[in-house]
Design a protein that fits this description.
This protein is an alpha+beta fold. The protein has 7 helices and 4 strands; from the N terminus they run ααβααβαββαα. A hairpin with a 5-residue loop joins strand 3 and strand 4. Helix 6 packs antiparallel against helix 7.
Length: about 170
């Protein structure tokens, strides 16, 4: 009887812990983003990333930099979908994210790969430059210029704001 009691208690707590670690599906993430974007009159900035991706982390750090984070938060609903995780971390991938990533041509370009949608789910632009190369987390002058051109076209930011984004993203050593 005591064993059944302990088993029940353990099963209960394991269930609670597992319930807290549920990864939302691609559809849940995107539908929620579209709903918020419509309500707040914003576009959706989707970034495909992975837990091991240092360039993805750099992109996040730049977008959340104190100098420019409000520019992004005021214009976009920013969401992430995990793809390309290692075998031991496949559990971190959002269900449906890999197929979505592939359908958007992300699999041909690496991560971070990002796409900007309007609130209805129409693609406005993505991280592929005019030559079809992924600028991902832009750092060179040309990549940052391409990035700010996309941001200019998909937001209400002014030139002075875009200049600040350029300063944050551009790695002058490259």
């Amino acid at each position: 009887m005591k064993n059944i009691y302990y088993f029940t208690i353990i099963a209960f707590f394991v269930g609670i812990l597992n319930a807290q670690n549920i990864i939302p599906s691609k559809d849940e993430v995107m539908n929620s983003a579209y709903t918020i974007a419509k309500k707040e009159n914003k576009n959706v900035f989707l970034m495909f990333d992975a837990s091991w991706c240092t360039w993805c982390k750099r992109m996040d750090q730049n977008m959340t930099n104190d100098l420019c984070k409000d520019f992004f938060y005021d214009n976009y609903v920013i969401v992430h979908l995990a793809v390309n995780e290692s075998e031991e971390n496949k559990k971190l991938e959002n269900p449906g994210s890999v197929d979505f990533y592939n359908s958007l041509r992300g699999n041909a370009s690496g991560i971070p790969f990002w796409v900007i949608f309007d609130s209805k789910g129409n693609i406005l632009d993505n991280s592929l430059d005019s030559n079809g190369n992924n600028i991902g987390s832009p750092v060179t002058k040309d990549e940052v210029r391409e990035f700010t051109d996309i941001i200019r076209d998909t937001s209400s930011l002014k030139e002075k704001d875009l200049n600040i984004i350029t300063e944050v993203f551009w790695d002058k050593n490259r």
